[in-house]
């Protein structure tokens, strides 16, 4: 209750750039860095690929609303969208448990059934190689696009590879296909209306008792006012458990695929098509899971948004929080993000913020990507940076609308957990350089430092 009222009171870039002539952080002006950003260079960095799926609970309260909200969500912008046709499946859970948790074997069984029934692993590979369902032929267009390979690199004959072509295939496997993930989200609604009503009734009763004891009717009025305030909260939250899986793609799988199943457009082979359709080569590996929640604590007097809009905001933030936790605990799921701008005062800007879970204590390694002679990409750690308190971007979904409703806060909205405040008017977060200032240049990427998970 105390935390609830406190919340109420509070509410009232890119490896291609590495080839350019780069200047260090302590000599490049903000204007020059802005120009590089405007040239679109930062949009070319390699992202991991993500397929997001909802575990539906149609019979649970607001189950259909959560389903609708999920279908309207965009793919998180630090990932390439690798969605397949099926975006949801029904849970076999018949009763909602406290905090949205179920027996682990129920969810594990449902997810495994979905993965097999929907043939997810094969579907992911087919999407990577743009497989034609009629002829079964493959091409390298998507790999070329996401890996930023030039046409001559991607237009290779799989059966007769040059050394550079083999290196490109290995690089694509490690950097792209091997970083393809399935994220299954189990989202359930938590109704705070009942708690608010009980709290309101308790406050009214308390005011009445105080009035009777003291003879002062103002206590009763105060109780009514406090109860009305609590009951005005149009608040609810969702609990979410997210399960992360990775597509298995290694040298052995790649070798088998290229030798036995690759079906070249210039010479379609029905036998290879059939062999691909029946192979059990492709699999998903379970990485881990996390549970968290997200809340909508806006007052009716401050928000005129529809329930659908509010549900979309809360569910999107819940998934964003799950992704942050999974990235912190599992290195293979971490993403690299390019430097956005290098400032005159020696600080650097990166387009991440509260959505990515950063705060003034976060630390990020700075990586310099470079291409080897045979065309593979390698990354060297060249420095470390840390966010500047007060210059953290509030880029959470719907944060601009929150800021309008919280204009009394000067355009700043607190993070949901109250741990950090962000500024919605920014376009990036500012970081101070802890080490490697002379080596941090345009084209560098940043990645959050690993957080050891407590046992």
Which terms summarize this structure?
455 residues, six-stranded antiparallel beta barrel, flat, disordered N terminus, alpha+beta
How is the biggest beta sheet arranged? 6 strands, mixed
Structural class: alpha+beta
DSSP strand tally: 14
The helix tally amounts to 14
Instruction: Supply Rg.
Output: 26 Å
Contiguous uncertain segments of 5+ residues: 1-23, 26-42, 194-203, 225-233
Task: Please write the string of helix (H) and strand (E) elements.
Answer: HHEHEEHHHHHEHHEHHEHEEEEHEEEE
* Mean pLDDT value: 79
Q: Report the β-strand fraction as a percent range.
A: 15-25%
N-to-C span: 30 Å
Tell me the helix content.
25-40%
Morphology call: flat
Describe this structure in words.
- β7 and β8 (348-350) form a beta hairpin.
- Mean pLDDT is 79; it is low at 1-23, 26-42, 194-203 and 225-233.
- This protein has helices at residues 2-11, 30-38, 63-72, 104-117, 120-128, 141-147, 151-154, 163-175, 193-214, 217-231, 251-261, 270-278, 307-329, 399-405; strands at residues 48-56, 79-81, 88-90, 180-191, 236-247, 284-296, 337-342, 348-350, 364-371, 377-387, 412-414, 421-423, 429-435, 445-448.
- With 455 residues, the protein is an alpha+beta fold.
- The strands form 3 sheets. Strands 1, 2, 3, 4, 5 and 6 form a 6-stranded mixed β-sheet that branches. A 6-stranded antiparallel β-barrel has the order 7-8-13-10-9-14. Strands 11-12 form a two-stranded antiparallel ribbon.
- The chain is flat.
- α3 (63-72) crosses α13 (307-329) and α9 packs antiparallel against α10 (217-231).
- It has 14 helices and 14 strands.
- It is 36% helix and 21% strand.
- The longest helix has 23 residues, at 307-329.
């Amino acid at each position: 209750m105390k935390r609830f009222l406190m919340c109420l009171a509070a509410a009232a870039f890119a490896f291609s750039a590495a080839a350019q002539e780069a200047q260090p952080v302590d000599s490049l002006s903000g204007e020059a860095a802005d120009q590089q950003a405007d040239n679109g260079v930062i949009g070319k960095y390699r992202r991991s690929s993500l397929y997001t799926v909802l575990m539906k609970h149609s019979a649970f309260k607001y189950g259909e609303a959560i389903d609708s909200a999920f279908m309207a969500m965009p793919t998180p912008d630090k990932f390439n969208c690798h969605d397949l046709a099926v975006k949801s499946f029904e849970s076999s859970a018949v009763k909602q448990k406290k905090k949205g948790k179920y027996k682990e074997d129920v969810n594990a069984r449902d997810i495994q059934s979905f993965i097999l029934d929907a043939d997810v692993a094969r579907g992911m590979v087919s999407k990577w190689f743009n497989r034609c369902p009629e002829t079964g032929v493959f091409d390298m267009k998507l790999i070329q696009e996401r890996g930023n390979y030039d046409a001559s690199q991607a237009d290779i004959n799989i059966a007769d590879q040059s050394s550079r072509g083999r290196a490109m295939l290995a690089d694509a496997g490690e950097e792209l296909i091997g970083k393809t993930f399935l994220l299954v989200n189990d989202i359930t609604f938590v109704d705070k209306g009942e708690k608010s009503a009980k709290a309101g009734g308790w406050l009214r009763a308390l005011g009445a008792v105080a009035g009777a004891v003291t003879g002062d009717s103002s206590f009763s009025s105060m109780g009514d006012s406090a109860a009305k305030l609590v009951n005005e909260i149009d608040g609810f939250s969702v609990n979410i458990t997210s399960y992360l899986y990775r597509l298995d793609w290694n040298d052995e799988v790649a070798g088998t695929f290229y030798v036995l199943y690759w079906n070249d457009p210039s010479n379609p082979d029905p036998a290879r098509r059939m062999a691909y359709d029946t192979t059990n080569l492709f699999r998903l590996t379970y990485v881990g899971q996390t549970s968290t929640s997200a809340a909508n604590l806006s007052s009716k007097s401050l928000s005129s948004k529809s329930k659908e809009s509010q549900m979309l905001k809360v569910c999107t933030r819940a998934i964003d929080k799950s992704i942050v936790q999974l990235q912190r605990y599992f290195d293979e799921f971490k993403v690299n993000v390019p430097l956005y701008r290098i400032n005159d005062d020696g600080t650097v800007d990166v387009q991440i913020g509260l959505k990515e879970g950063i705060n003034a204590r976060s630390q990020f390694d700075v990586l310099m990507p470079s291409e080897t002679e045979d065309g593979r990409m390698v990354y060297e750690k060249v420095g470390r940076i840390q966010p500047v308190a007060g210059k953290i971007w509030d880029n959470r979904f719907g944060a601009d609308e929150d800021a309008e409703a919280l204009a009394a806060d000067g355009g700043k909205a607190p993070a949901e957990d109250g741990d950090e405040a962000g500024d919605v008017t920014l376009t990036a977060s500012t970081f101070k350089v802890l080490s490697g200032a002379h080596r941090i240049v345009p084209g560098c990427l940043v990645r959050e430092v690993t957080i050891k998970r407590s046992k």
